[in-house]
DNA sequence: TTGAAAGCGCTAACAC
DNA sequence: GTGTTAGCGCTTTCAA
């Protein structure tokens, strides 16, 4: 099945030089006579030679490749974050491969193998099932950077959005519009959700609004949970909320649709603010007010830090938090 | 930076055997005395040895890895198709890496390098910029299967949905609901769009409805184009359409939102049928009637065929077309 | 049942 | 400037 592949030996023979010279030409070494270079390049072209990466990587100390490790491909911001990573990587002549763990711890270990086996020079993780202990260990031995989802106190660098400030800004905005009964659709696991909840709490506190546990619901980031929890919020509460802050756009769309289906209009009866600013927010009816994550920048920055680590320089800072930006659309309006 | 890695040599030394024996244990060779095997395994555990894949792959004829090659990560069906591929791959103890060309021909060549360099055993493509000639050549030398987007007459196997039949069923359904002025939002490039347009034409013909070029608009699969083209359809036509068939859900959501913003209600004033059955269709207001692609099966089948090729067996069939299934939701209703 | 040794394709230290 | 050669970590003959 597989074709006999042209090797560096074949090129050397064809060009009448040694393999070392061919290797020098391939790696743009300056100490090659112009005539020789041309001769070798001619042979390369004629034989359609392409270097075997396995051989090269085995010998070299670097593969010029990094891995993006994620738990699921179902990740609305992936495309843009990836673009940031990819464009930064390209500047260093690095290429990227994407691997999904599908949430399996086993699979994740297998993929981290690729790092330990020098199959890639470094890894950017988007959420991991590693324990703090494991992550600390891994970070000591290999270049690794966390993006978006992160664990602190492990010494592992991370690049994320300022979740607390973002949530606080979102809720403060709702307060400014005149809302006092502000609900939240959150998640009861993960650092991201926790920080956003803290931001929510802070904003309420600053506005002198007392905290009401009935107004907080916990979902799983899915559309369905947004729908279900909004129904609960609107049906359970004797004094129903006039606004909802959702910790992602997916649930916020569910919230908007559920509210309308119950006969409430958005934003007049219920104002909604999401988080992320994905296409979903734009495609929603009405388009959602949301906190925009600097997706491209997050990816770009993660790659920059990873390159520093790969090159053996400790990055100046181990923790980067970029600000989220309020994007006002039609799911919010000044309260009458 | 990088940790000194434990090699097979270290294990051999520690266990007091040769590297050959360690290799045999690693590969479950039967000709190893039980005592020796235990001794080696003990050493492996103690040293936390993990085989270097680069060395192994260089020596072996296979990597037990395949690549999924796509032009963009922004692919609403990716998650489910991938699941199909991944679960099939797992059965063969294969792992998968995903690589995006970002639409760059250059990048694509670079990635196909990984195949030619035995970095992966095979490739599943989701759309490629290769010419028919190049694809034919590649398919002759390496295991490769096309999924969803494909080129015929190259000898390269493909697994896709029956686009013509799917489109025909969608439009026939609209006809049955009583519609005669049925528009289409399509795309003016790519085989997929072409086949769906043919299906549309066939359905009209079967219903004795004459073809009206004004009712066909060409977008680029994006939400924005769905919005824009729907406006055109509703504003330009003196006799406006009562139904629209969109060749993907993304544009169909744009269609629904644009129609409502112009004061038309969906489905009463304008019925809409999408294609794909992604989350977008479910999250739309109203939820969209659409043609469901058998996403998981498409991925699974592609991987099965690829494995056959990797194992040197010519697949029984080079072309698999799975049926799309009509899913009726609230963007269509019997016409009054 | 085990070990010695060749060799996968490449790079780089060293010699000329 | 160029060639010779060792060796990256592994698998797999071949011989013992």
Which helices and strands appear, and what pairs or packs with what?
2 copies of one chain form a homodimer.
Chain A lengths: L7 H8 L3 H8 L7 H14 L5 H7 L5 E6 L7 H14 L3 E6 L4 H12 L5 E5 L5 H10 L2 E4 L10 E4 L1 H14 L5 E6 L3 H16 L9 E4 L3 H14 L6 E4 L2 H13 L9 E6 L2 H5 L5 E4 L2 H16 L8 E4 L2 E3 L9
Parallel strand pairs in A: 1-2, 1-3, 3-4, 4-5, 5-11, 6-7, 6-8, 8-9, 9-10
Antiparallel strand pairs in A: 10-12
The first copy, chain A, binds a DNA duplex (16 and 16 nucleotides) through helix 2 and helix 4.
Task: Label this structure with key terms.
alpha/beta, 336 residues, 6-stranded mixed beta sheet, DNA-binding, 6-stranded parallel beta sheet, homodimer, 45% helix
Describe this protein's structure.
The structure is a homodimer of 336-residue chains. The first copy, chain A, is α/β, with parallel strands linked by helices and 336 residues long. Helices cover 45% and strands 17% of the residues of chain A. Chain A is built from 13 helices and twelve strands. The first copy, chain A, has helices at 8-15, 19-26, 34-47, 53-59, 78-91, 105-116, 132-141, 163-176, 191-206, 223-236, 249-261, 279-283, 295-310; strands spanning 65-70, 95-100, 122-126, 144-147, 158-161, 182-187, 216-219, 243-246, 271-276, 289-292, 319-322, 325-327. In chain A, the strands form two sheets. Chain A has a six-stranded parallel sheet with strand order 2-1-3-4-5-11, sandwiched between helices. Chain A binds a DNA duplex (16 and 16 nucleotides) through residues 5, 7-9, 17-21, 23-24, 26-27, 31-33, 36, 51-60, 117-118.
């Amino acid at each position: 099945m597989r074709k006999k592949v042209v090797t560096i030996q074949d090129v050397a023979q064809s060009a009448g030089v040694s393999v070392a010279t061919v290797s020098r030409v391939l790696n743009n070494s300056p100490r090659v006579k112009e005539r020789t270079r041309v001769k070798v390049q001619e042979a390369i072209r004629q034989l359609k030679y392409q270097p075997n990466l396995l051989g090269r990587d085995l010998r070299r100390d670097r593969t010029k490749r990094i891995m993006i490790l994620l738990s699921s491909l179902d990740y609305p911001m992936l495309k843009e974050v990836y673009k940031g990573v990819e464009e930064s990587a390209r500047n260093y002549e690095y290429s990227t491969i994407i691997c999904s763990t599908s949430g399996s711890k086993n699979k994740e270990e297998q993929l981290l193998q690729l790092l330990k086996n020098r199959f890639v020079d470094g890894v950017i993780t988007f959420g991991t099932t590693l324990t703090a202990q494991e992550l600390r260990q891994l970070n000591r031995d290999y270049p690794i950077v966390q993006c978006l989802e992160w664990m602190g106190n492990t010494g592992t660098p991370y690049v994320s959005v300022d979740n607390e400030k973002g949530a606080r800004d979102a809720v403060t905005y709702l307060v400014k519009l005149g809302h006092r009964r502000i609900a939240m659709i959150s998640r009861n696991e993960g650092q991201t959700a926790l920080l956003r909840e803290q931001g929510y709490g802070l904003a309420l506190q600053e506005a002198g609004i007392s905290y009401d546990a009935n107004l907080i619901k916990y979902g799983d980031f899915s559309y369905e949970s947004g729908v279900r929890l909004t129904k609960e919020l609107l049906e359970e509460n004797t004094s129903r909320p006039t606004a909802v802050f959702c910790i992602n756009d997916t649930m916020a769309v569910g919230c908007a649709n559920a509210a309308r289906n119950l006969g409430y209009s958005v934003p007049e009866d219920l104002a909604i603010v999401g988080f992320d600013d994905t296409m979903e927010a734009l495609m929603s009816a009405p388009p959602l007010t949301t906190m925009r994550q600097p997706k491209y920048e997050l990816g770009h920055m993660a790659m920059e830090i990873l390159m520093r680590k790969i090159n053996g320089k400790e990055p100046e800072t181990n923790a980067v938090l970029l600000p989220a930006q309020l994007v006002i659309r039609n799911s919010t309006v000044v309260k009458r």
